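Sequence in, structure out.
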Amino acid sequence: MQPLLAIFSGAAAFATTVWIVARVVRLVFPAASSNLLGAGLISVAIWLLLFRLFGLSLFLFVLGAVALVPGNPANPRKAPPPKSRVRSTNLEMTLDHESGYIDGRILCGPRHGQLLSDLSLSELLRLLAEIQTDEQSLKLLETYLNQAHPEWRDHADQSADAHETRPPDLNEMSREDAYRILGLEPGSTEGEIREAYRRLIKRLHPDSGGSAVLTAQITAARNRLIEDK
């Protein structure tokens, strides 16, 4: 009975020592890891001092201290570069914070699912004309064009010059495209077509800082729909 009692007493005393060491370490060094292994090694080192085993006690004390040291802040685990996503009706844009690279995915229309980076400049300008009624998507696409094709406005103006000498061929524009450019539903009345045209042309006319090529496309869309009335 007495040996069993001695074992339980010794275990209780050792557990108490571990608890005290852990508490003292946390109070003195708040940044230390709450590692029971480290506290246990230091506790064993303290008990070995009672038996004058100084060398082994020092060795275990050092091991316990190392176990309690928090991870090296100089080499933190590298987190993946953060990205921001902005979604509008027609586009989902992604910004890589580390590189500053912008790309987007088309959410509607015949180019659904395509990345902006996969489109040519002429295709992007056509898309710009098609989403004129969606101001949020328009701003997102213009932001992408400013980064990916800084000269896009000059290119649009050069295309507009070509339109001045060669009027747009209405047969090249489908009725569906014309409705999409004006932001109208199929079956809209002539009055609704003219009203949508006036609203867009006021905002996009070159004299107001807009693009001549987009103005030409909007005019062609109006003419395409009115011609069929």
